[in-house]
Amino acid sequence: MTIKHALSAIQIDEVLETLYQRFAKNEPRHSGLDWTKIQEKLVANPEKLASLYQMEATGGNGAESYYAARGFRGILSV
Fold first, then answer.
1. Which terminus has fewer CB within 10 Å in the chain: N or C?
2. Considering its fold, how many domains does the chain have in total?
3. Residue 78 CA to chain centroid, in angstroms?
């Protein structure tokens, strides 16, 4: 899946902060991992970061993120 829009600097900061908070909250699960290196990889891969942003925006619903990225907003709403 390709997200065809770039995130703004504010959106990048928001998603990175959300991911960092989740990482820090569950630190025992991530022993041996360095957040700085993870963040560097995310920033170096803007499409992946945009996908994560979309998943966060839809509450983690991958299918909804997929359709929203293609302009089908509300298609899964009941």
1. C
2. 1
3. 24
Give residue 55's domain range: 33-71
pLDDT of residue 29: 87
Please state, in angstroms and rounded to a whole number, the distance separating the CA atoms of residues 38 and 68.
26
Q: Which residues, at least 6 apart from 53, have a Cβ–Cβ distance to it below 8 Å?
A: 7, 11, 12, 14, 15
Contact 49, 12 (CB under 8 A): yes
Question: DSSP class of residue 60?
Answer: T
Give CA–CA dist 62/78, Å, rounded: 16
Tell me which amino acid residue 51 is.
S
